[in-house]
Amino acid sequence: MPRARIIQPDESYTFTDYFKLNFAPQDILAYFDVSLQRRSLKLPRSTGTLDRLVDLKTRIEESLPRLSLTSEMARREFLIAPVLTDVLHYTQASLNVEYPVAVSNQLKGSLDYLLQNHQTLLVIEAKNEDLERGFVQLAIELIALDQWIESEQRILQGAVSTGNIWQFGQFDRLERQVTQDLDLYRVPADLEELLRILVKILDP
Questions:
Q1: Which contacts of 109-115 are long-range, i.e. CB under 8 A and separated by 24 or more positions?
Q2: pTM for this one?
Q3: Which of 46, 48, 79, 127 is the most exposed place for a label (fewest CB within 10 A)?
Q4: Of the candidates 134, 192, 190, the residue with the CA atom closest to the CA atom of residue 162
């Protein structure tokens, strides 16, 4: 199938439009000359003290039984944002929410959460709790981020989250390859492991 049939060069696409496409992820990425692989990333973990971990886990465990996760706003405010707020505490990173990016007619929109200090980390919320389509959107946003930021960072890191499930992805800027992590991290069960990965990415 010709790539032009997947993404029309003369049409405008936002990041969320890629979430809606029914084509195979590798075919969508191929339009941007990017390949896709899936494997366990075995991401490194921070070994530092997480002095807020117990409090965060308690708050999440108390709210989950009473929280309706059918709302994207609820997942963002009560599950994703508290995790990222604590990551800021541990790493002293800066956070941009709904950060606008416009690289081209096919690469534009707003990034849900962009964290930056020594490294850059992109986090997006998976709409409709659809992790697979959410990852396609994450991959597209990492491709756009590659052209948007000035950084020596060869591997751009990202994560897509439904709030209670997180999946990581990487974009190798030289090889032009996106890697989808086969491992998933649950909140609150894997909260400590998740936090240690996020902290390590931003504060290596």
A1: 109/14, 109/15, 109/16, 109/141, 109/144, 110/15, 111/15, 111/141, 111/145, 112/76, 113/80, 113/84, 114/145, 115/84, 115/87, 115/88, 115/91, 115/202
A2: 0.94
A3: 48
A4: 134
Q: Are strands 165-172 and 177-186 parallel, antiparallel or unpaired?
A: antiparallel
Q: Which amino acid does the sequence have at 125?
A: E
CA distances from 151 to 4, 119, 147, 148 (A): 31, 9, 10, 9
Q: Which residues pair with 115 in a beta bridge?
A: 95, 121
Altogether, the residues listed in the chain come to a count of 204
Is the predicted pLDDT of residue 152 greater than 90, yes or no? no
For 183, the enclosing helix (H) or strand (E) is: strand 177-186
For the stretch 3-48, pLDDT in tens is: 446 888 889 999 999 999 999 999 999 999 999 999 999 999 999 9
